[in-house]
Structure formats: C-alpha cells, structure tokens
UniProtKB/TrEMBL annotation:
Source organism (scientific name): Faecalibacterium hattorii
Protein's name in the database: Large polyvalent protein associated domain-containing protein
Domain Large polyvalent protein associated: 7-91
Length: 116
C-alpha cells in the first residue's frame, strides 16, 4: 500500500549531509512535487531496525521513504549502502544557518525551507 506524499507527516532527518524527510510508509511517487526526490530505505536482514541501503525502490525489508530537495548520488547499480556514522542522522540538519530552524513535518514546510 502506498500513500499520498502531500497528506502525510514526516520526521526531518539528515541523510548524507542533506536535509530530508523520513516516513516509515511507502509514498506514491506520482504525488511527490517536481523538484523533490524520493528514495526507499531498506533495513538490515536481521530486523534490528538499522537502515542499510538507499535505492529508488525497495521491495524487501522496506524501512521507509526519504524525500530530499536535491538528488543523492547513487552508484551505477542504483543502490547506496548506508554508513551509519556518516550517512544517517535522525536529527535535522544543523549548522550556523539552522539555529532558529523549526523542523519540517510536511512537504509544504520542507519545500519552503529547502527547495530551490
């Protein structure tokens, strides 16, 4: 089952140093606004809840969907294996320009904050 991106609420996280929205559900790709990029996240085979791979689509061990304002660089096979220490952070992007930033929970909030 997939859901409309525009009606869901998300957690703002940081993926590969970029701001992203995360949800544990599958999002219908045709409901993602132009200028945003969606990827599926696969969790580990032992079901410990560890995100381990980002790809355009994940069938088995789906952990969730991430949405970004810019595309991720993916290897030629289209799958990026996640380094937990550097690629995945459940906290919003931090830095000098984000001190007063309220985390985004909707696509509209995210587009206002990050879309170019």
């Amino acid at each position: 089952m997939t859901f409309n991106a525009m009606t869901e609420h998300y957690e703002e996280i940081t993926v590969c140093g970029k701001p992203a929205l995360f949800t544990s559900i599958r999002i219908k790709r045709d409901t993602i606004p132009d200028g945003l990029y969606a990827y599926d996240v696969r969790h580990d085979d032992e079901c410990r809840g560890i995100p381990c791979e980002i790809a355009p689509f994940v069938m088995v061990n789906h952990w969730g969907t991430i949405i970004l304002a810019e595309p991720l660089e993916l290897p030629d096979d289209g799958r990026r294996y996640i380094d937990e220490d550097t690629d995945w952070n459940y906290a919003p992007l931090d830095g000098e320009d984000t001190a007063n930033h309220k985390p985004c929970t909707t696509i509209s909030d995210f587009m206002t904050a990050y879309a170019h």
